[in-house]
Amino acid sequence: MNALNIRDLRKVYKNGFEALKGVDITVQQGDFFALLGPNGAGKSTAIGIISSLVNKTSGHVEVFGHDLDNDPEGVKSCIGLVPQEFNFNMWEPIGEIVVNQAGFYGIPRKEAWRRAEASLRQLDLWDKRQQMSRTLSGGMKRRLMIARALVHRPKLLILDEPTAGVDIEIRRSMWEFMSELNRQGTTIILTTHYLEEAESLCRNIAIINQGRIVEHSRMDRLLHQLHTETFVLNLRDPLNELPSLQGFELKRLDGQRVEVAVNSEQSINQLFEQLSLHEIGVTSLRNKQNRLEQLFMNMVESARNGAAQ
Amino acid sequence: MTRYSRYLTAFQTIFTKELLRFTRIWLQTILPPVITTVLYYIIFGNLIGSRIGEMDGFSYIDFIVPGLILMAVITNSYSNVVSSFFSSKFQRHVEELIISPVPNWVILAGYVAGGVARGVMVGIAVTSVSLFFTDIQVQSYGWTLTVFILTAILFSLAGFINAVYANSFDDISIVPTFILTPLTYLGGVFYSISMLPEFWQQVSLANPILYMVNAFRYGLLGVSDIPMGVALGIVVLFIVALTGFSLYLLNRGIGIKN
């Protein structure tokens, strides 16, 4: 059974803006799925419709076999949502926020406290359960929203930019937490602007642009489409003059750093052979851009050019 | 866990949340109406009232007691729901409810129960204070309690509708200031409509609060300007209409969904 099935989903807002123009998405049960797109592409509208925050104009949404039109309660029972913006009561204690959310799902108070304790402990917030939510730091507020979304043990967890504005240490611990959740069987849909995050966590991906899905495939298959990767090389000694390498073109960034593009028919070994021939020592190298980011930019750019023509 | 036990838990959660919300800030929610009512008793009841004499066979202070109690119930049940639901929209935590499998009628019932609870608490507090100023004997506990609860339900519903349409904090104070307060003051709290010229008596009959005040006065004092059947019928009619309209708004997602 698929965790999510979306067919021909359309949304036209009252002001006439067409946010979704016939979107089809399938997410398999147990998947870690990335839904990417530039700002205003329609990601949040799609997530809003799936989680009942936005009314759709037309189309079909099914979550674990529950149809959104005929069985909205069934759909809602399966979903946990971590929205992009903070949406909890700033004047309520943290423990109560999580317990109340469980109550809305019909979980009696005693059991709700037991589950809230488990969720809050997992996210290092249990000690702060009596604190008002407004006193939390940005990272803690994000973790509170995750704890709240997990308290009814959803089969499908939707994370809309869960790590936005979070420092790198917390971000990495959140990645581990999400991976562990997924390993335990929770299907996860992730939207993020950190493409490194999507590349390392997700197995399948859909890219949405201007209300249309422009790519829907496996992450590894998509990355394989990347024909050229650009590397930044840190050199052992400064270069006075750029040498002419066979098959490669070096571009100077500064005295001791150059960048070079390697296409899918070439190898890094060939590059290093050429550099050795010219006695150029390399102390380290890195991708100039994350691979997914490069692909993403190519797709968005070509879609934009297509629209302009 | 059956569907209805889930609904009951969800209702209890919303109700408890509401109860905790206004009791936590009792200095802002419970105490002010009590102080206001004491001032009314001292000024209108004792100081001015003693010069007015009797009204419908009762001393003026006894005559205004039912209206003042009901006025506190109306204001508090209304403002509890309007401020709580609007605040949940403003801070966006209404989304917690929208994404949960809670039917709209349970959401409405939870908020209305919260409004009724505050109305009843304030009503009891104001009634207790009244005992220091008057010695009225309740004529019918059944009528008194029925009107008391129905009025709180009606104005909780009205507060809910106001909150759904409100887009700013100004919007939640416009209706109480420009509609609710004038209707309450002109609803026979401080006078019997039999004192008015015929034309204004007829105009007053268009004011729904008049029926509630009179029905409540009948329960406490045994006198009313309006037949009881008519008063009760009108209150129930309003409750049914506002419930239907509130559910329509929730089902369509007006004011809360994009």
Description:
The complex is a heterodimer of chains A (309) and B (258). Chain A folds into two domains: 2-224, Rossmann fold, CATH 3.40.50; 228-292, 2-Layer Sandwich (Alpha-Beta Plaits). Chain A is globular. Chain A has 309 residues and is of the alpha/beta class. The longest helix of chain A is centred in the last third of the chain and has 18 residues, at 291-308. Chain A has a six-stranded mixed beta sheet with strand order 6-7-8-3-9-10, sandwiched between helices. A four-stranded antiparallel beta sheet of chain A has the order 2-1-4-5, covered by helices on one side. A four-stranded antiparallel beta sheet of chain A has the order 12-13-11-14, with helices on one face. Chain A has helices spanning 43-50, 72-78, 94-104, 109-122, 138-150, 168-183, 195-201, 219-224, 268-277, 291-308, and strands at residues 2-12, 18-28, 32-36, 58-63, 66-67, 79-82, 156-160, 187-191, 204-209, 212-218, 228-235, 250-254, 257-263, 282-287. Chain A contains ten helices and 14 strands. Chain A starts with a strand and ends with a helix. Chain B has 258 residues and is mainly α. Chain B has one domain. In chain B, 78% of the residues lie in helices and 2% in strands. Chain B has helices spanning 3-24, 26-29, 31-52, 60-90, 94-98, 104-133, 141-165, 171-185, 198-204, 208-221, 228-252; strands at 54-55, 58-59. In chain B, strands 1-2 form a two-stranded antiparallel sheet. In chain B, a hairpin with a 2-residue loop joins β1 (54-55) and β2. In chain B, α1 crosses α6 (104-133), α3 (31-52) packs antiparallel against α4 and α10 (208-221) packs across α11 (228-252). The longest helix of chain B has 31 residues, at 60-90. The radius of gyration of chain B is 19 Å and the shape is elongated. The mean pLDDT of chain B is 92. Chains A and B meet through α2 and α3 of A and α1 and α5 of B. Chain B: GO terms for molecular function: ABC-type transporter activity. Chain B: The chain crosses the membrane at residues 25-48, 60-79, 105-133, 145-166, 172-193, 230-250. Chain B: Residues 24-253 form the ABC transmembrane type-2 domain. Chain B: One of its GO terms (cellular component) is ATP-binding cassette (ABC) transporter complex. Chain B: It is a multi-pass membrane protein.
